[in-house]
Amino acid sequence: MNKTKIYYILTLGIGYLIAKNKAKKIANSVNSNLTVSEKVPFEVSEILNAIGGIENYVSHSATINAIKFEVKDTSLIDRDKIKQMGAKGTMLNEDSVSCLFGDYSKKLADLITQHLAK
Asked: Which of 3, 26, 83, 117 is buried most deeply by CB count within 10 Å?
């Protein structure tokens, strides 16, 4: 084999090993940054009115992208109004409604807790 072929084989082999190691490091890296919005595009009283008012409210809990309201009567919930406020969707159960508000759900839950504490 001539020297040129050996040179190309070694160069490509070393390049392949370097690229493989770099790809493995990127694949194993963990993204620890979580995107959470601090801006809620509506007032807390609007969402409470949409779920039937404070008289219908029992409790709430939030995940990264959704907020779940436990209510006394689900027939008082205005799903269209919730969607107009920016919800990507709503899921109605026997005694609760889950609203998919995206990355500001946690902030909304905190604001509701503060509003109810007044």
From this structure: 83
pLDDT in tens, 44-70: 999 999 999 999 999 999 998 999 999
CA torsion sign for 41, 86, 100, 80 is positive
DSSP, residue by residue, the chain: --HHHHHHHHHHHHHHHHHHHHHHHHHH------------SS-HHHHHHHTT-TTTEEEEEE-SSEEEEEES-GGG--HHHHHHTT-SEEEE-SSEEEEE--TTHHHHHHHHHHHHH-
Give the predicted TM-score (pTM) of the model.
Answer: 0.69
Q: Is residue 66 within 8 Å of 98, Cβ to Cβ? A: yes
Cα(77)–Cα(83) distance, rounded to whole angstroms? 12
